[in-house]
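User: Here's a structure from my thesis project, written as structure tokens. My advisor, Dr. K., wants to see whether a designed sequence matches the one we expressed. Can you design one independently, without my sequence as a hint?
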């Protein structure tokens, strides 16, 4: 069954606890937490304190996506806040291998996120240290963007690379009931969706993503 990870960035923050409980009851498997610093991407979101508060009101694993510069400075903070998976971008740190090792040393699962223009070669050198690969099917920074169809080939290529490995292949960006089937058909294990899920009946929306 496809793993569904609703992106909290699209939730109503005035009713965040209600929103979290609603998607949990609707069948979500994880919660996707987008952390943005206004430097690596042109937007700001929130930090460890909000992440910790989210963790306190849900039993779902937290899938924390660090879209920040020098993520190595913040690994410990997000581990302490309750992250179960921490995903970083290869070009956000000078020492990708070391940063992934630090995430693992803290008992967290480690992920690598790939921008639409990123080459897959980087995976060759860290494949033994990652638990998740996140394909960005939009240029990150803002929700509600349209899915980039050229990322389907990347998803398929990654699936071939990791097919015998215990690594989750996740896709984030423009995910809805139209784009989800193509992602799954090309090998995605997990779908991250924000605007689509939080714009209607959560259970119905999540069910449609799994079709």
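Assistant: Designed independently from the structure alone:
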């Amino acid at each position: 069954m496809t793993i569904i990870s609703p992106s909290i960035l699209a939730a109503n923050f005035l009713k965040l606890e209600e929103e979290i409980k609603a998607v949990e009851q609707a069948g979500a498997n994880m919660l996707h937490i987008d952390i943005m610093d206004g430097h690596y991407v042109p937007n700001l979101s929130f930090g460890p304190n909000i992440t910790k508060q989210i963790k306190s009101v849900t039993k779902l694993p937290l899938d924390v996506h660090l879209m920040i510069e020098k993520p190595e400075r913040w690994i410990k903070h997000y581990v302490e806040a309750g992250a179960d998976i921490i995903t970083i971008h290869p070009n956000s740190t000078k020492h990708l291998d070391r940063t992934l090792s630090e995430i693992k040393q803290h008992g967290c699962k480690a992920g690598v996120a790939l921008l639409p223009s990123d080459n897959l070669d980087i995976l060759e050198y860290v494949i033994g240290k990652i638990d998740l690969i996140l394909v960005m099917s939009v240029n990150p920074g803002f929700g509600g963007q349209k899915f980039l169809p050229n990322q389907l080939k990347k998803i398929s290529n990654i699936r071939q690379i990791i097919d015998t490995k215990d690594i989750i292949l996740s896709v984030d960006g423009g995910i809805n009931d139209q784009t989800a089937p193509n992602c799954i058909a090309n090998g995605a294990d997990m779908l991250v969706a924000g605007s689509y899920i939080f714009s209607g009946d959560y259970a119905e929306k999540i069910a449609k993503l799994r079709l």
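When you compare it with your expressed construct, this may help: Residues 3-210 form a domain with the TIM Barrel fold (CATH 3.20.20.70).
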